[in-house]
């Protein structure tokens, strides 16, 4: 849960680097939240109001986390625009998000693994 809250606290922070663990733990917490909100939307008959409100609320934090994750792999945050290419873009972003970050410092900051160790 701390990984999720840490991302929310860094609401629109696009600087620095994010570890794979931070990214995937955020995704792991997001999936059940979206499922619960979708079920609530159907039960309350408000579909898709709650889902859209949640999506808009976490848009900037998740975008910031994605950019920081790209920074960890040595890529610019602009690489996230690749995800808008149909089918191939999502696969490429998935591969980039799963790729191990560069060891040591890069132009975006220190390796987060070394900072927390």
Automatic annotation (TrEMBL):
Record InterPro entries: DUF805
One Pfam family from the record: DUF805
Organism superkingdom: Bacteria
Gene Ontology annotations for the cellular component aspect, listed alphabetically: plasma membrane
PANTHER family: INNER MEMBRANE PROTEIN YHAH-RELATED (PTHR34980:SF2), INNER MEMBRANE PROTEIN-RELATED-RELATED (PTHR34980)
Protein name (database record): Inner membrane protein YhaI
Taxonomic source organism: Streptomyces lavendulae subsp. lavendulae
């Amino acid at each position: 849960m701390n990984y999720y809250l840490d991302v929310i606290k860094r609401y629109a922070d696009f600087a620095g680097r994010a570890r794979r663990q931070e990214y995937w733990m955020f995704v792991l917490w997001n999936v059940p939240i979206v499922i619960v909100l979708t079920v609530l939307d159907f039960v309350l008959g408000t579909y898709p109001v709650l889902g859209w409100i949640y999506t808009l609320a976490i848009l900037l934090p998740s975008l910031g986390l994605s950019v920081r994750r790209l920074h960890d792999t040595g890529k610019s945050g602009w690489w996230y625009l690749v995800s808008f290419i149909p089918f191939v873009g999502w696969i490429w972003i998935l591969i980039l998000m799963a790729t191990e970050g560069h060891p040591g410092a890069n132009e975006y900051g220190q390796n987060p693994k070394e900072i927390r160790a």
